[in-house]
Amino acid sequence: DEGWTAWENGLYATAHEKFTEAGGVEGLNGLGWTTLKMDSLPKSQIYFALAAVGGSDTLTDAAAGLAIVAWQQANHDTSLMAANYVLRKAPNYIFTHDVTITKNTVLLAKAYDEYHLLQYANCITSIQQIDNAFTANVNDPAIAQILINKLNLLSGTGS
User: Fold this and answer.
1) What is the pTM of this model?
2) Buried b (16+ CB within 10 A) or exposed e, 35-55
3) Distances from the Cα of 19 to the Cα of 26, 30, 140, 158, angstroms
4) Which of 146, 85, 135 lies closest to 110, judged by CA?
5) Which of 31, 8, 27, 2 is nearest to 98 (CA)?
6) How do the residues of the chain divide into helix, strand and coil, expressed in percent and rounded to 5?
7) What gap in Å lies between CA 101 and CA 60, rounded to an integer?
8) d(Cα 26, Cα 14) in Å, to the nearest integer?
9) Cβ(125)–Cβ(138) below 8 Å
10) CA torsion through residues 147, 150, 153, 159, sign
11) Digits of tens for pLDDT over the chain (159 positions)?
């Protein structure tokens, strides 16, 4: 609890210390989220992967973190697997320690993964779960550009 309180208050060095002391799956999950906030993506991915195989109630949070951090590092197979797990286990996922991280965050990671893995039909479906007004034809010769433009728009990185 002390680790999560520190994390929620932006005290990531303190959170890191508390999660290290706590150990176990919850500690690994907390370290994953903490090192993600501290911009140490490789470490974050390791912590999430360890927590995700450890079971318990933290598994969905660890898998959500793994989906996000693996996507950010272009580990699309790992990210997609983790995203699919989260969406299967918690279709309305919300990370309780940061409610801005939701099923849509996971869906966006999933859609980017599908794009990069050339799974365009799946990518369209994932995008439509975020924006049900989106339409695209997988056979359109410009489908790759259409999808990346939409993904970048949804992520706030494009127009």
Assistant:
1) 0.92
2) bbeeebbebbbbbbbbbbebe
3) 8, 6, 49, 36
4) 85
5) 8
6) 70, 0, 30
7) 12
8) 16
9) no
10) positive
11) 899 999 999 999 999 999 999 988 899 999 999 999 998 999 999 999 998 876 555 689 999 999 999 999 999 999 999 999 999 999 999 999 999 999 999 999 999 999 999 999 999 999 999 999 999 999 999 999 999 999 999 998 764
Structure tokens given for 54: 């450890």
Contact 27, 19 (CB under 8 A): yes
Residue whose entry in the numeric block shows the structure tokens 């991915």: 45
pLDDT of residue 59: 87
Q: What amino acid occupies position 94?
A: I
Joined together, the tokens standing for residue 65 give 């973190």
Q: What is the pLDDT of residue 157?
A: 75
Token pair listed for 90:
């918690």
